[in-house]
Structures are given as C-alpha cells and as structure tokens.
UniProtKB/TrEMBL annotation, chains A, B:
Listed InterPro entries: ACOX_C_alpha1, Acyl-CoA_ox_N, Acyl-CoA_Oxase/DH_mid-dom_sf, Acyl-CoA_oxidase, Acyl-CoA_oxidase_C, AcylCo_DH-like_C, AcylCoA_DH/ox_N_sf, AcylCoA_DH/oxidase_NM_dom_sf
Name of the protein: Acyl-coenzyme A oxidase
Annotated residues for binding of FAD: T155, G194
Organism for this UniProt entry: Buteo japonicus
Residue numbers annotated as active site: E438
Length: 676, 676
C-alpha cells in the first residue's frame, strides 16, 4: 500500500488536459460528425470560425477571467463586472467589433453575461426608440462612449408587470418649464433596476404625467441621479443597492426615491408624445410599437439567457455521468457509468432533446420576428398581436421548462452537482430568474391564452386567423391511428396528437368560459375562474408548435443524413417525453388509449438507450470551451476529481486560519490535552 | 404632491410592528381557532408552551441572532455557526436542557439548523452504536463535553451511496498492533463530511479492512486528524474545506487524505467485529442494526429539514400574497390581492395542503419507527425491511415534492421572492440538498420498489405481507363509482382511486419485469429496463399512503369540528391536486373516465376558493416567529415594503464606496463634465 501511494496521480502533478479514458471512449463511437453538427447549428462553418475567434480573443485576455468567480463576494463580483464592461469597450475598439455587429452575441456568450452596464444598453435603446431626433443627437453619443452611465427605472417596490399601477409622478410646472418628479409612497420607490444601485449617473424614469391636474398616464423621463463630478447623489435623490439576491451578484440592482426632482421639459422622451411649453399635450404616431420592444427582448433572451445555459447544464451533467461510476449493473463487473442506468438516461436525455428543441424554436421565433419587423417598417401592424402572443407564451414555456431541466441536471450529479464548483448551482439560480423577469410567466401564458381564445372564436365562425392558429378550427380524427410502438416514431402521428390535444384544451376552456358567462357570471369573474385551464391551454399550444417546428427542422436536413438521423431521434424523444409526462391530457378524451400510451412508453424508453450512445458527441457539438463552462465536472477532459480537488484548494475557506479556532475552539480543546 | 411627500410613512420612522391592514383583515374571518390548531399540531397546549419558551430563550440571546445572515461570507457564516454551537452548550447547561430532552427539537427549530458540530453528533452517535463498552467509556465523555470535535468520514470523492465501492484501506500491522490507513487513489479521498474542513480533531473513518492480505469489507476507525495543541494537521493527514456550495455555508464540509496513518488496534469500533492481537477476525451479534441508523436519520430529517422549511415557505408566500396587490380583478376597483387570482391560489394552496399532509406522514413514520424500535429491542428484526422501504420511499417522495413546492412558493412571489431578504432562496437552496443527501432519491425509490415487488409477488401467491401493503392483492372495482363532482370530496372515493392506481403501477411493472426475464433478458438487465417505471410505482405507493393517512388523521379529529372541517378541505385538496396533476396514471386503464376527471378538476378548483379564505390563519397556526422566518416578505405584521427597504440599507453593498468607482468609472465620467 505504501508504494502504491507514492505513485498516485495526484502526488505527481496535474492530470488536467489528459482526457479521462471513460470520456474518451464515448467520443470514438459517434454516429455523426461532431464538427458538422456544430457548423450546422452555427448556421455554417464561417459562423463557427468567427465564434471561435471571438471566444478565443476574450478568453485569452486575463481581464475577462472568471476563474475565481465562485469564491467572490457580491462586492467583488460587482467590481469585476464593471472592470470587464469598461475593458470590453477598449477591446471592441481594438478588435473592430461593433455593438450591432455579428460578434456581439459571441462576446456575450464568451462572457456568460457576466458584465456590468447591461441596463445601460436598455437606457440607450429606449432613447433611440422613444426619443426625438434632438434627444437622440444629444444623449446617444454620450451613452455609447460611456460618458454617462444609464439605467432604466420602471418597476417599483409595489408594482411590477401591471404598468398602469405605477405610482411615481411627474407634474409639469409651466412657470419653470420643468417636470417635478416624486415618489408619493413607499410602494412607489423604484426597485430592481440594474446598474442603478451604485453605477448609474442617469436613468429613464417611468412616471405618471400630470399637466394641469390631469393624468396622461405613463411617460419616460431622463433624470440625472448622481454627480458626474464625484458620483454623489443629486439633490432630492435617494438611491442605493437592493442587497443580496439568488444570483446576479455582479449587477447592482438598485432603488430610487425622488423628492421634488426637477428636470427640464426637454427630458421627457418625446417621439410619440410631447408637452408643449403652454402645457398642451400632443400625442403623435402609433404607440403600438412600444409593444414591440418587449417582444424583441423576450425573443432574444430565450437564446442567450435560457437555451445556452440549458445546453451548458446538459454538457456538464452528461460528461460527468460517463466519468462517474456507481454500483454494478452486472454482478462481477466493475462499477457502471451512471449514464448506463435507465433512470439517469431518463433524467438527462429528455433535457438534451429539449435544449435542441428550444434552440430551433428560438430560430423560428427570430424569423417570425424579422418578418414582423419588415411589416412594421411598412406601417403594417397586423402581425403585432400574434408576435406578442408568441413571444409571451414561448418566453413562459421555454423558461419554465428549462429551469426545471437545469434543476434536473444539477440533481442528477448528486452531491458534486451541489458544489458551486460544478457550475450547476449558478446556472440554476440564474435561469430561475428568467421565469420572473420580462413578464411573470403565468401572466404571459394568460396573454397568449387571450389571443388563442380570440382566434378560436374567430376561426369557429369562419373568420380569418393567422396561419399558426388555423389548426384550432381544423377537423382531426377522434382517435390516434397508431397501431404499434413504431408508429409513435412517426412525426405525423405525434405532431397530430399534440395538435389535437392543444386544440381540445383551448376549445374546452372556451366552452367553460362561455358557459359561465351564459349562466350569469360576470365576464371578469368567469375569466378568473378559468385561468388555471387557460394557462394550461396556452402551454399546450406552445408545446405543440415546438414539436411541429422540431419535426420540420429535421425534415429539412435531408442533405445531411448522419445529422438528420440523430436529430430525428432527439425530436422523437422530445415529443414522446412530452406525451409520457403529460399523459393525462392525451388520454382524457380517448384520443390516445391506455394501450397506445403503453406503446408511447415503450418507444420512449427504447429511444433512451439509442440516444445514450451519442450523448457525449451531442453535447460536444455545442462547442463550449472549458472556460465558458467554468465547471469542475464538465470540462472536456473529464478530470472531474482532480479538478474538484485543485479548485477547492483555492477557496478562501482554505486560505485563512479561521478566527473561530482561537476564539472558540482552542479554549475547549486545550482542556483535553491531559486526558488523551 | 410636495406636501404629501413630507407625510410619507417612510419619512416618519418605522411602521414595523403595526400590522398591514390587508393582512389584518385576513385574520378576522378565520373559520377556526388558530390557537387551537397550533396546540393540536404541537400535540397539546403544554408542548406549545414549552416550544414557545425554548424559542424565546434562544431568540432573546443575541449570540444566536441571524439578523445579518444574508450578508455574510462563507467564512463569516462558519465562524457564526461555531460561536453558536459553543454558546449553545453553555446555554443548555444554564437552562437545564439536555441533548435527548424534549427541548432539543425546539432548539433546532429556533436556530433553523444554523449551527456547527452537527456531524460531531453523528460521530458521537456512531461510537455509541458501534463501539465497545470500553470505547464508549473513553470517547463519549470527551465528545459530549466538546473536548474533542468529531466528524464522520464515509463518502469519498468518487463514491457515495454505493458503500461497497469505498476505496480507503486499513491494513492491520500485527507487529505494531496498529491499523495503517491509506487513501489509495484520488477518488478515494474523503469528501463532503461536515465539520471536517476546519473544525474536527477526530473523525470516524470508514475503510476496507485488510488482515493478512484478506479484505473483510468496510469498518469504522477513530482517527485523530488535527493536533489538540495547535490544531495543525497530524502527520500523514491532508485535509481542508471543499469550498463553496449552494447553501450550508456555515458547515465546513471537508476533504481528507490519509498517507500511512497509524491508529492503535483499539481504535476500530468493535461492538460487532474485532481484530484480535493475533490477527484473528471476529464478528459478533447482528449487523442488521446498521440499517436502522440510516432509517432513523431519514425519518427525522423529514420533519426538521423538509416539512418545517416547507411550512416556512408557505407562510412567507401566503402572507405576501395578501399584501401584494397587482392588476384589477374587476374594472374600476382597486388592484386585487394576488391571492385572489385563481392561478396564485393554484400555485400556493396545494403546497400548503402538502405541508400539512407531510407533517402528518412524518408523525405516522415516527410511530411506525417507534413500534419497530420496540420490536428490535426484543431482538425481533421482522419489521426492518418494511421500515427500510418506508423510510427510503417517503424520504424520496417528501423531499422531492417539497423541493418543488418551495420553488413554487419562491416563484409565486415574483421578483421579491428572488431577493435573499425574502428568505425563500435560502430555503430552496437548502431543501434541494435533501434530495441528494442520506441516499439519492432515485436509488431510494428503487429500494422501496424492490420491497413492493417482493410483497406483490408474495401477496399474489397468498403469502403473508406487512399490513401496509396488503392492498397490493386486494380486489378493487374496475371503475371509480363517482357520479358527480361532490362525490370526489369523499375520502373513500379518492383514497380508493389512489390505491387502485398504486396497485396497478406495481402490478404492471412486475408483469413487465417477468415478461422480460421470461423472454430471455438477464435479470439485472430486465431490472434496469424497468427502473423508470419502478421508481414511478414506488412514488405512487407513498402518495397513496400519504393520502390515506391524511384522511385517517382528519377522521380522528371528531372532537374538534372547527379544525376537522378545515383539515378535511386540505385533505381533499391534497388528494384532488394529486389526481389533477397526475391525471395520466388515473385515466390510463379507465378507472377514472375523462368525464370524471372533469369533475375532479371542478371540485379541485372549487376547493381553492374555499381554502383561500382561511389561508392566512392556516399558516399563522404554524406559529413561526419573525426571527425564525427571517423574511422581509413573511413577517407577521406584513410590512413587506418597509422591511425590504430597511434591510437593503444594511447590505454591505451600501456600506462601502466601491473601489470600482475610483478605478473604472471616474476616469470615464470626468471626460463628460464639460459636455453636459
């Protein structure tokens, strides 16, 4: 035993870099080319090349290092984020990257969003969209050169998604040609805006506009909150940081109270509305476009804040699950890789399939949005309701599903998944926020439901509806035609099942709503009594579209048969997992029978074993660098234990002799010395 | 507006303590006596009195304060936990409280488990259970007086639940009469033991025992790891802290490597096995009792680590949901309390019902365990398999359900739930660990499933089985007899539905297993191919027993009709929520028809509105003090916004001017001065 010890790998310097043989073997049997899949996901090899170049440029710059992130305090995280944001400006100049260029999304990916001044970007965007030409000319150059730092103050301590309820006031004072801003109540304090707690010098404040005692509703005002000279708070301003959160320690989410703060008349953003010097209120153009801003934010966050983190979680959990061995599958053999257990496959592979499904749906939504944007530029606003409904419902569905998927990945890694060093806890604590910000999910589902109910009513009376919802009035068979388990590997079969189910839920909820109203229940009460089912119906609609879009994406892959085959398996898995886990809604009206559900289950479980073989290549294709993953469990080389040990030694808990010893332990323990 | 500002509540000192009127009004309409419900939950008024006295004694002692907990670093949390543990010893002496007295559970509740040396307790317990009389006489007095600090080193970096896989070795050296302990590989490093990273001087190490080259399997050894003189590591010991985790910052989970560490022969715990001086290995007595230790730990953690945190989360989320107002339910009215929305009720009230259900099942398990313990003391080990199966399955079900319940509570509070100051994030990050520790949930479910399959086989061939599983062979009707939605408020109806469903899942999985084996699949492969369904069946069994136990608990309440009535509603809600959310398994064989499922849904949604009225009294009855909840959202007075604001100001992010300003922001902003 003694001799063996001296030859231990960990007594001889690091193994990091040499690939763990259990992981290496997984890569030798891929049924497809990982490089080709990566290129296809990126939209072509030239995109892959650009992405890799950008990521490398970021990662080789030590200022952007995330090496010690898991050990840092909230104050340290904030400081690092500011440092990175300021340095990034320089770097972008140096590299010739622009904010609106193709590189920015790769920069954001390489930094894992870990930088300050993201709200500054919203500040800038809101001025560009809502400001007059003069306002744009004045503020945008300052903002883009970081000569001021902006924030965006909308949400209040007592008011979130329901914007009409905001209480902050802006009263026009005709004598001085100023607006006087006030926080009339504690619940009116601005609360949560990023970059506001410690950084911002300016902010766009949303306030109820009063002119001559009349309220004109919410309007945006540019307000300076801190001195450019010494960063002290401006007169009438109370502001600070809202304290610790579940994640986003790097962001200084802040609070803001306004006490008789005066801004010149020119500081109300006035592309669409203006208060003229004599107090006349003028509204011009369409305000519908405001809708569109939220839509674009919701669509872009799906990829950046949700799908990419989910892909990371899958990469970490799946690589770890072929390195970790536990118990024996067969008596007498060595302990088995945990991914060889059906239960572990059933935890992780559906999440992997979902990551692909949501990657494709994010593409689909982006295309829909681009089409909508072109129409809007031609002053055609017809697509707005559909876009709003889609961005709301998919934001809600994808964030909810992915949050639970990341949690499954974390728990599937057992104790080590619970260590911050695995990278999984921070992915979870960050993604869970996506269920809340940019519209709380339940409210979003209900907005989608309202659209669907309207379309259903229209479609059933023969009126035209957007193509995505014509299925609501389509006639489908009453029974699923599948005869054996292989039939359930046909996209037509399962897509139709999803369509039938979504249509039924919308249909039956619409009927309940009508019944209630006809029985004398007031409309708003009836609506409230149906909301649990309405939210379920909206989710079912989004699930259906996601399955359909996945199947269509696979179909288009005919020129790449290797990739098409494995994508087909994932599509089948995503669809059958959904039926297996939501069996009730498919069985409810007998569309799928109990016997057919057994076929679904059989095919679903068979697929797990098939996809298992390609699990590692499928996550390798996401092409995350080790630095991006920042995970002791998920690195490319699979040196899990070595890395956990090396990283743990860097923890501040190992760098300091705790004062607790001298203060509390020593007095106790010294009593013992004589007794042992 | 100016005048109004000067009169703001927050400009006039704190409102804390005066109850928010929206919350106060909820307490005036309770359908039952909160005080009576509290007393009943505690098991009698005398228990309530004792609990309150203990909690008060702890809370009025500033050493135990958790006031700044959300702002502290891992190092600070650790130091506070040690301080509290040492102080608690003094306090207990002072108050005449004993470790095994009735007070300890209340102490733990008052401290929210936030103290060091919990593993020291396991160290002590393992010596008491596994040590010889001499060993007990030597070590226990030292341990109970904290004259040494113990830990319990079982889990290794590469080995968790599968204990046979542990790699640490202990070789008997006959010449010196010592055991030589080694860590033969990096994956054999002890990893995770609490109190080991920085505190422990001694630990019980589990290692594979070798005598004369023969391996005798795992045995426990007492090993000193740190000097009692100066706390330095002993020769051959490498140890430290494993670094940051998702929670449990107050615990110094550690790692330990052993390099030719020698301990005397007397340090092997030898109640059941001994190595004699000549190297003869002697085994005595039954080792089955080892089983029982894990069983007791699993049963006791259900209440302390899972149900109480869930009750806290419900208290916080429900109180907040009657203070928070958002949007309008009826046009023209003021914004509505969010708990008046059906969707919010549907999020929170089933979790409240689950908290009660699990409180009762924890009682049930405790009784079962007490009965088992009495039998074991009479050397009757017959109940061990049932106890093991129950403790495994219920630990898995309750932790999984409650983790998701706490997450729902967190998300139901929107943005403010995401602030650490709400108390919800730390409840979540702590409870999620319970799915992993003391046996990973999937593995536990499968152990329960193995027991159920065995019992099913026995029962179907007429052999006797424990009373809790006789239902597996019972004949039940093929269709649920309910005719209208009110029938589903009958405990007989829904309990029978659960029973039918659980029996069917076990039955059908047993059949699949048999089919596979009969078709030539090897037994272990067949088992693996059924594990997804086996886990589902085990969960269904536990769900059924929980519903049944809830219904029986309600029945026994006949002398307290007020409480019985509201408990009946909660029992109905728990049961119908389970059918509604797992509709597939009830619809699968037609036991419940689609039309009946609509009745379930209708009754379920109706119940939400009924229980809504008593929601606040139902959480008040849990009787948590504000200090125990430690939540800005959940305090008894409901002064949510005031408290968030006051607490945020104490954050270190507001107490320091960030170096980021001088370093990064000032150089940028000073360029701007001339331009604005």
């Amino acid at each position: 035993m003694e001799a063996a010890w001296a030859e231990l790998p960990y007594s001889q310097g690091s193994l990091l870099g040499s690939v763990n043989p259990d992981l290496a073997s997984e890569r030798q049997t891929a049924s497809f080319s990982v490089e080709k899949l990566t290129a296809w996901l990126d939209g072509g090899t030239e995109h892959t090349r650009l992405r890799r170049a950008v990521v490398e440029a970021i990662e080789c710059d030590p200022v952007f290092s995330r090496e010690n992130q898991y050990f840092e305090s909230q104050n340290e995280r904030y400081e690092a984020a500011v440092r990175k944001a300021v340095h990034l400006q320089k770097k972008m100049d140096e590299m010739g990257w622009t904010e609106n260029g193709p590189e920015f999304k790769y920069i954001y990916r390489a930094l894992s969003g870990d930088l300050a001044f993201l709200l500054h970007r919203i500040f800038t965007r809101s001025i560009s969209m809502l400001g007059s030409d003069q306002q744009i000319a004045k503020w945008i150059p300052l903002a883009t050169q970081y000569q001021l730092i902006g924030s965006y103050a909308q949400t209040e301590l007592g008011h979130g998604t329901y914007l009409q309820g905001l209480e902050t006031t802006a009263v026009f004072d005709i004598t001085t040609q100023e607006f006087v801003l006030n926080t009339p109540n504690i619940s009116a304090m601005k609360w949560w805006p990023g970059d506001m707690g410690r950084s911002a010098t300016h902010t766009v404040v949303f306030a109820q506009l009063y002119v001559n005692g009349k309220c004109y509703g919410l309007h945006p005002f540019i307000v300076q909150i801190r001195s450019l000279q010494d960063h002290s708070l401006c007169p009438g301003i109370t502001a600070g940081d809202i304290g610790p959160k579940m994640n986003f320690e790097h962001i200084d989410n802040g609070y803001l109270m306004l006490q008789n703060v005066r801004v010149p008349r020119e500081n109300m953003l006035s592309k669409f509305c203006e208060v003229q010097p004599d107090g006349t209120y003028v509204r011009r153009g369409s305000q519908k476009i405001n809708y569109f801003t939220m839509t674009t934010v919701r669509i872009s966050l799906i990829l950046d804040e949700v799908v990419i983190p989910l892909m990371k979680a899958c990469t970490i959990a799946i690589r770890y699950s072929v390195v970790r061995r536990q118990s024996k599958l067969k008596p007498g053999e060595q302990e088995a890789k945990i991914l060889d257990y059906q239960t572990q496959q059933e935890k992780l592979l559906p999440q992997l399939a979902a990551a692909y499904a949501f990657y494709f749906i994010s593409d689909y939504l982006q295309e829909l949005f681009d089409r909508g944007y072109r129409e809007i530029q031609r002053k055609n606003f017809d697509m707005l309701p559909e876009l709003h409904a889609f961005s709301s419902g998919f934001k809600a569905m994808v964030t909810q599903y992915s949050t639970s998927a990341v949690e499954i990945c974390l728990r599937a890694c057992g104790g080590h998944g619970y260590s911050l060093l695995s990278g999984l806890p921070s992915l979870y604590t960050k993604i869970v926020a996506s269920c809340i910000y940019e519209g709380e999910n339940t409210i979003l589902f209900l907005q989608t439901a309202r659209f669907l109910i309207k379309c259903f009513m229209a479609a059933s009376t023969g009126q035209p509806v957007p193509p995505s919802v014509t299925y609501l009035a389509a006639v489908t068979p009453e029974k699923c035609p599948a005869k054996n388990k292989l039939d359930f590997l046909s996209p037509d079969i399962y897509t139709e099942a999803y369509q039938h189910m979504a249509a039924r839920l919308i249909n039956s909820t619409a009927a309940k709503l009508q019944d209630l109203v006809q029985s004398g229940v007031k409309k708003h009460d009836a609506w409230n009594q149906c909301t649990v089912q309405l939210a379920q119906a909206a989710k079912a609609h989004c699930h259906y579209i996601t399955v359909k879009n996945f199947a269509e994406t696979v179909e288009k892959l005919e020129t790449q048969p290797g990739i098409q085959k494995i994508m087909k398996h994932l599509c089948d898995l995503f669809a059958l997992h959904g039926i297996f886990s939501n069996a009730g809604v498919f069985l409810h009206d007998g569309y799928i029978s109990g016997a057919q559900m057994d076929m679904v289950t059989a095919s679903y479980l068979d697929l797990l074993a098939v996809i298992r073989k390609d699990a590692v290549p499928l996550v390798d294709a996401f092409d995350f660098t080790d630095k991006t993953l920042n995970s002791a469990l998920g690195s490319y080389d699979g040196q899990v234990y070595q890395r956990l040990y090396e990283w743990a030694q860097k923890s501040p808990t190992n760098k300091q002799i705790s004062p607790a010893y001298e203060r509390y332990l020593k007095p106790l323990l010294h009593k013992t010395l004589s007794k042992l």
